[in-house]
Write a structure and sequence with these properties.
The protein is of the alpha/beta class. It has 7 helices and 4 strands; from the N terminus they run βαβααβααβαα. β1, α1 and β2 form a beta-alpha-beta unit.
């Protein structure tokens, strides 16, 4: 079982979208039994909240089902995950502060697996939810390719 944890700042926009997109990809490819997938935030500022409505609407438009309740990352997430996939350099910096040396090696930027490594810009600020969705889909597809061959 490969344990994958998607991480952003608030866990109401990018990382829950990544969690649900990745779950759809592994379902479609019939490899869902290979993975355990979750998401969380570096901050607990939105803990308990549902997916931010514009992000949820973007998922719905693309036929991605599911829901998520925001939560802050825990020590157990850092210890248990095989891959901790962050959205941007800020997430990376925040996690590296609290991760042990061995845990740091499990942290990657989601789009680092693509042919065009980049941040997933935060749609909370850019308001560009379609762009974030496209970057996340690209990152999740490339990551799945890497881990499942
Ligand atoms: P996310 O976006 O990290 O993609 O979930 C944000 C959501 C909420 C806030 C910041 C970013 N906030 O400051 O509340």
């Amino acid at each position: 079982m490969i344990k994958v944890t998607f991480v952003c700042l608030g866990n109401i926009c990018r990382s829950p979208v990544a969690e649900l997109v990745f779950k759809k990809l592994i379902r479609e490819r019939g490899v869902e039994d290979m993975f355990s997938v979750t998401s969380c935030g570096t901050s607990g500022c939105e803990a308990g909240s549902s997916i931010y409505p514009p992000a949820a609407a973007t998922l719905k438009r693309h036929g991605v089902a599911g829901s998520h309740t925001a939560r802050k990352i825990t020590r157990k997430d850092l210890e248990d995950s095989d891959y901790i996939l962050v959205m941007d350099d800020d997430n990376m910096r925040d996690l590296k502060r609290v991760a042990s040396e061995s845990e740091q090696k499990k942290i990657y930027k989601l789009c680092s697996f693509t042919s065009r490594p980049r941040d997933v810009a935060d749609p909370w600020y850019t308001r560009d939810f379609d762009r974030a969705y496209a970057d996340i889909l690209d990152g999740c597809t490339a990551f799945l390719e890497k881990v499942s061959g």
